Amino acid sequence: MNSDFSLEETTFSIPYTGGQDQTEESNDLPRPLDMTGDLPETYEARFEAYKEAWGKCFDRIQSIVERLLEPYVQAVVHKVEDANILPGLPRPELPVISISNPIFGASFLNDVCDRIEAPSTHLYPSDCTNLSNAMRSIVTGLAKDEDPDSRVKHRPSTFLATYDINYLVAWYRHLVSMRGDRPTLLVVLHNFEEFDPSVMQDVFYICSQQLPELPLSFVLSLSTPLPTYLHITYSRSTLAHLRIREVTIPNGLSVLNEILSESFFSPGSNPSIMLGPTALRFIVDHFSRHNRTLDSLITNIQLVYMKHFTVEPLTCLLHNTPSLEESENGSEGNLSEGEETPGSPSPALLETVFERIVAVDKKGEFLGSLPANESSGSASQRRKTAMDISQRVLDEVDTSRLAVRAAYRSKCIAFNIIKLIHVCLASEGLRVLGWDLEQQLVEIFVKFLEGGETVDRWLRQLALILRKLSLAQIPRIITQIIEKVYSFSDSEEDVAVAELLKKVRNEVLADQNRPDLREEHATSLSEWVIETIKDLLGRIEDHPLWEIWYTGDMPFPSELINPSTRASLLSGLLRPLAFTSNPVVVVAPTAEEEDQEDSLWKLPDTSILFHRYLDSGRMINVYDWYEAFQVVLETQREELIKAKAPQKKGRKGRESKSPKKKGKAGSESPRKKGKGKQPQVEEEDDEEEQGEAGEEAEEKWKLEVQARFIRALHELDYLGFIKHTKRRVDHVLRTVFEIHE
Fold first, then answer.
1. 335 Cβ partners below 8 Å, 6+ apart?
2. Environment class of 125 (CB within 10 Å of its CB; exposed 0-12, middle 13-18, buried 19+)
3. What mean pLDDT is predicted for residues 42-60?
4. DSSP per residue over 592-654, as a string?
């Protein structure tokens, strides 16, 4: 396992490297069913492309989140460090910082703790079930030795209890003597609404009694508006011991809009994978209705990436196109046989790319640009023509990559210009398009991706509004557009557009004293905006190979977000061969045979045991269950022996049908006396050896059956299908009933 992983990771990938006792024939593991039209030779290249694409997207999201949270992290750090006790109060007040943090979760609080060079501890509701556990968690979480050699050894009878606050006071005095300063001790309470108020009010009271000798500060992570929860739940006597200060973090759809806008909607974002309408709609719907957290948003975007690289075999061409130079330098013999050299595209990949390009080449321009393939030429000429066609196909991939990215960027530019004009018109107090940019921002961008009548209606409304602008309003609108265009990029096209707008703005400013020219300038601006936007709204789907870089209407894998666990488990156990293959059985049953009792031996062991599980009552006798399982395995053993030796069977049948040798009278020839004793002894020895070998094989088979039964039983136990009982040791309870097969 990679040492860079931490315990905060939820999943670890430990690849199987094989053991020393593994042979080539033993590598017969179940394999998932291949999807139609997939290219298995591109799996590794697609995985590498996915890692690069997702790494780029994840790093950008992290940078956006860090920029959003930076001022709030600094505010919390300042409040923690400025936790001085106010003088002149009748009782000391415990510093408490309430943070409304329903989206960013523990990541924001971890950043705060990393910025503060002081001892800190994180507590969750499960750590504070009662007062003793709560105090023990606080004391042991903070009282950590910075120098293990400086620990003073005491007799066991002189130790304080770990839940005693005086233990923490003594430790803090030692810490101050070592460091020379008085750091603030920080206690972070996650999901504060789930803590028991009766326990926490005692904790607050105990900690407040140690001030100012023990400078404690509490950070409360809340998901409710501030400070309503504290004032409703806790009594006035408890609140009198607290000095509550509030920090409100950005929340709701504003965070979602900011992350998606800078990651996918900005012309300068240049995402590796461009999300389509279906994926964007699902992400917004799931965020707004089900789970408003940053982890959920990142997970959904990552699932879109994973699904795209899974279902689209050509995503191996996402970042770059393989070259044919290595193939050209290879041996002619290999090329003539159709074998690709390492690093070169496979014939199946080239064929798939060629078919995709031809499918959208309605005018035949691509086919017309290909060199003619003369069948009457020599082998070297045909080989050179094939290489030229392959190179032309790969060049078309590079052209499509630039064209698709340019088309997506043009839509982003059109969206941002219209949004800017909408905001400017709203600030001028004019009638706008009726957009709610906080609630409908993603849906508006989706409409620009789809095009159609909705965008045309918006452009007609915008043209009418722009024609009514005054001479004073026109320069302000143009100035905002110029600044926006400059923010896109420093390309020559953007700079030329900005310079053109500057000339128009200067002309309008020069004609400020001529009201008769207002309509002319307003109409000119309106026509320019509408024509520019229409030129930018080209269809991405019109370009060949757009499926590589754009998800389009690909369905979101919602079953991975909220899977039907029970149905999936039952389907896998009842019909396992619909999901994977059984390496033990060579001949798989058909769909009709799976439901038949006679084909049960063709299923995996766990599925066999589960079918016998369905035939039992509320309590299952384990020995009877084993006997039923053994019967099926015996049938499986016999069927596999028959399948492996069909030819031997045929030869034995022919020998049995052949006539025996007979004497002159047609009877069997008599045996000669005195010469059959030695062969008879040898036959008896052979029979004894075969009997001993058969007994040994039978013992091994019984052990194998027992081992396979125990393994299948443990798998069902792990899945929760059985429950052990103390009343009958040899019985287990069935936990799942009413299964419709």
1. 327, 383, 387
2. middle
3. 92
4. HHHTSGGGGGGS-HHHHHHHHHHTS-SEEEHHHHHHHHHHHHHHHHHHHHHHH-HHHHHHHHH
Length of the chain: 741
> Residue 53's closest CA among 359, 302, 383, 421?
302
Handedness of CA 268, 273, 274, 278 (dihedral sign): negative
Residue type at 564? S
Question: What's the rounded Cα separation, in Å, for the pair 689 and 686?
Answer: 5
Q: 544 near 394, Cβ under 8 Å?
A: no
Residue 70, classed as helix, strand or coil, is helix
How far is it, in rounded angstroms, from Cα 723 to Cα 71? 53
Contacts of 549 (CB under 8 A, 6+ apart): 272, 273, 274, 318, 401, 404, 405, 408
Q: Are 575 and 568 in contact (CB under 8 A)?
A: no
Give the Cβ contact number of residue 56 at 10 Å: 15
- The model's pLDDT over 419-429, given as tens digits with 9 standing for 90+, comes to 988 888 888 88
Point out which residues pair with 98 in neighbouring strands: 220, 246
d(CA 408, CA 539): 9
CA distance linking residue 478 with residue 373, whole number of Å = 56
Rounded (5°) CA angle 36-37-39 = 115
Q: How far apart are CA 545 and CA 401, in angstroms?
A: 8
Lookup result for tokens 């001030």:
211
Instruction: Note if the pTM is more than 0.90.
Output: no
User: 457-498, pLDDT tens digit by residue?
Assistant: 999 999 998 888 888 888 888 888 888 877 776 666 667 777
733 half-sphere exposure, CB direction, 13 A CA radius:
8
As a whole number of angstroms, the distance between CA 477 and CA 491 comes to 22
Q: Are 119 and 182 in contact (CB under 8 A)?
A: no
